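2 proteins. here.
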Amino acid sequence: MGDRSAKALAKAFGYTTVADILGHYPRRYATRGELTSIADIPVGEQATLVAEVVSVSTRSMRQKSGNVLEVVITDGTGGVTLTFFNQAWRAQNLTPGVRGIFAGKIGVYRGNRQLAHPDYELFVDEDPGEHASQEWAKKPIPLYSATSTLASWQIAKAIGVVLDVVEIPDEVVPEGIRTPEKTLGYYAALESIHRPTEASQWQHARDSLRFQEAFVLQCALVKRRHQQRLLRSTQRTQGDKTNAFLAALPFTLTPDQVSVMHQIHEDMAAPHPMTRLVQGEVGSGKTVVAATAMVTVSQSGGQTALLAPTEVLANQHFRSLAATLGPDMVAWMNPVLLTGSLPAAAKKKALLAAASGASHLIVGTHALLSDTVQFADLGLVVIDEQHRFGVDQREVLRQKGRHPHLLVLTATPIPRTVAMTVFGDLDVSTIATMPEGRIPITSHVVALADHPEWYSRVWQRVAEEVTAGRQVFVVAPAITPSVMEEESDVESDPDEPEAKALTTVEETVPMLRARPELSGRKINALHGRMSSADKDEVMRSFYAGEVDVVVATTVIEVGIDVPNASVMVVLDADRFGVSQLHQLRGRVGRGSHPGTCLLVTHAEENTTARKRVDAVASTLDGFELAALDLELRSEGDVLGVRQSGVRSRLKLLRVTRDGEVIDAARSYAEALLEGDPSWEGHLALTLEIARRLDEGSQEYLEKT
């Protein structure tokens, strides 16, 4: 490229290489349409004309600096003016007597019809026949994402310059894979997507490049997984302690729990570190599965570190694990809690227990990542709700041991194609069945736009539940009228022209205390701006039954377990995501009483926001909702590292839509690695992985 163009592309998009600009695919394609006579053109329509230049003139703009080139053309039935701003150089070719094909949208200026910045092609030697003119008119026009300084046609021209001279000697996708998949070679696909002569060309090219994206990413993932299996870690095998723990459980494990336990034990008995993601609905029994793995690691003298995203959750995990393990196991494993708000003496004691090996189970928050925290023999790292942590934070903890086993827990259901793409180098286990006796939660949409009188009924329903001896969660999307809750993922509704002010915790608490039906009830607030000690005190009181209603932000979204809580009221439910609403309602109905979730919304029917709320109320299937949530949100940067640069982003592949493509790519990647672990015969593929996945993305794949 010329220096001016190169600098413009770098400034506008951050592009510095040929691959960067060739990867700037058209966002859509336009067509010029059928040939039209000037006399028949309606204003506002796209028109394609075969005409002759009659006159050319240039004038200065009146309101600002610059010039306007005006070219009058005719086809014998009428005339129209072509208008170009600050492009006087076009007069060199658009001279009187020249004929060509002109295409654009017809407008009106001072009573005369005009085409502003039309697309055109001049006849150099002789006029093409009618057939050739029709072909030109039907030829797709690539339209690119542009900026104020770079128009779509300028980008197209720059890409054309590159395509004319670039050479791609080696194919990224081997011929033995391209042939059965019927995909184009790399250069042919680039040529067809940027300079198609008909729609079927760019469609075939797009499919080919989408498959290549999937193939490159899956190859990177399987290669990372292969390299990970070359590491050596301490083998941890099930023994008497594990068997005794399982035999003492007061309930029967579900088939899914048993299956996942076997998978974990097989992994930990191998000579390489386990990297397993266990996903399961709220209440599906992930805790007991993790506890079993902890006991197994402890039996061989190893330690487990459990990293939780908040102090509230860390405290609850500590209590929950102690209850699950039972007195004998607790006495033997000596679990300790390590959080930032611990008193100095308690923190020193916990640090000593971890460093000396006196404790086999250390539960904590980000405090575990501190340089002062050391372990005698870290054998297992358990990450709870891993999306709450940065990649670097997880890696810091793993580095405190000698390739410890990794177990990631999530209650956020992950569609299979997402798991294959984002977590493709982790083994994924799913606990789909719920323990017997779990009563399904009933969900209702309280549509205040249609029935404003239902608002009072919500609080009457809350009072009835409290009177019956049970407890209630109320969730609001903001803390105060001016400060949004940072832990929340509040969404705006594009269909709602003037969004209603968010309901807040600080306004809701006094409002509820003032309601006659809740008079005398203990109602407390819980949100992220409270101190850790205050938050834990509220949750302890709520768990003990001393508080009737907790009004909270999404700080209670994950992991809070209060068996006596039976009703969840979500205010402004339309301001939350689908998966988030599903997580919130999972906080109730965890005991012997039926759970009820009331989704209160002002969103109008048939808006996107209302559809989210209606979807949550319609099903308890978290995987179905997760797929819907992903479609509504779009997956964004599937590699999870937005800060790592534009090259890490997938251009065409969509995990919500391209499951079959990802499946096929995964199979080919695994077969390729099995046949050639070194990939010596696939240099182009190796280079493409390095190019597409920059340093940040490579580290992300390695650490996850």
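next one coming up
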Amino acid sequence: MIRFLLLLCAAIGVTSAALAESPASGQTAPLARLDANTQAAIACGDLQKTDFSAIPDAATTITAASVVAGSDRYKEYCRVEGVIAPKIGFEIRLPTKSWNGRYFQSGCGGMCGFLETDKYCGDALARDFVIATHDMGHKGRDAWDGTGWSQDPQQRADFARRSTHVMAVVTKAVIAAYYKQNAARSYFRGCSTGGREAVQIAQYYPDDFDGVIGGDFAMPIRQGAIANTWDAQHLLDANDNDIFSEAKLRTLHAAVMAKCDGLDGVVDGLLADPRQCSFDPRTLACKAGADSDACLTAAQVAAAIALYDGPRNSKGVRLTPGGRALGSELAWGGGAYGGGKSRTAISEGTLRNLAFGEERPDFRYRDFDWDRDVAAVERQVAEFDVMPVRTAPDLDAFHKSGRKLILYHGWWDPGVPAVGTLDYYAQVYSRQGGLDATRDWFRVFMVPGMFHCRGGEAPNDFDMLGAMVAWVEKGVPADGVIATQHNADHSINRTRPLYAYPAIATYSGKGDVNAAENWQPAMPTRAPNDLIDWNWAP
């Protein structure tokens, strides 16, 4: 009977997941109807009594399940906590009376080790999705704490890839048990480490989600061990203090913008594409024997040049796809990354825990050698960084399965160079039929003025989830997504559309320059070549 139903559903376009047997019940669950205000079929507390131990490679124990009353923000929901063996902690929230038939899973940040469900999933729960977050298999004192777990092979594997996948498997089983229906559509969104999770899903688990959204994706070895260590060595002095004061960074940023702000047709404090800008920090060099907030010392000039260019070894070979974008200077100091202590935590947390481990437990970022140690961390890339070194991404299965992928990146990200996302995109579309064909299922949005995942004096608040749902369910390609910049009192400062790369937003020449409706897409006259020649490139 099940085989007959599967064949029937295949004929009418319903996936086999829609009729999957719930490991908890052994029963075949039908597909939920979208936006039907579906109610729970069992009591919330009964989920704690349900046996989820038979889920393949994801034996699960529910440790708590209770109803949370409705509020101004959310309707009533069932809050479920549990553990996926061996140590993946998670939280699932299931609307008790208003489920819209969709599942939303969030990615994590840093080395994870914590749950921030409201922060990462609140907008989806407010729309009546079932939502889930997980800690990637360990507990951490902070986002960069690898102590006590990073030398355990299973916990490394969970952080690297497994936890994201099994969280999706388990939540879908909980959904089937609670509603006696399967999720009609499933979506993932994450930024930074969560962005890495997104591209891993697309490559290794293409059937887990219908739509995948990844922002500013950060691969631990390429970013934490290489890019962030490079930044730390150039931005910190011998006492781990920032070499740039905020006043100096404002001077540098102002000089960049004075030269380049108008290149995109509007002087608005943003650069549509910083690669169009050409600026030499040496023009700000202090005169011999002088120093002030209005100029840069020799060490500061050298640091700026090094950051714009990005990591290189002694032979001049690039070690990442690029460096910090022109215009990103205000994110180099304590405001965005917390200054010296945060930079050393990112670099050394990655190097000590993920790269070198017990071999070099006292390793400091200053000790990193750009020839010897780059070669030493290569063996960890395949474990954590999606693709092994010199290997191209392979999204063929994801594409053929009919899924959709959106990546976005803040141009002024101070931690993860934005050009890396464009290099990744080019690696994909050069192998998947070209840019135009790839845009049918995979789109990239570059966000002018945005720092890492958020922040910056720019429109940086946007609804990629809504755009993805419309693309997956209605066939409306994601484009012209409105980004908003808010004032301190939460009022709107300005709005700006984000267009799918390589298009950029261009002012129409009429109306309020701060209103999105007065902007339109402009495609480049020549197709971009974003493939970058660097040490670990395919």
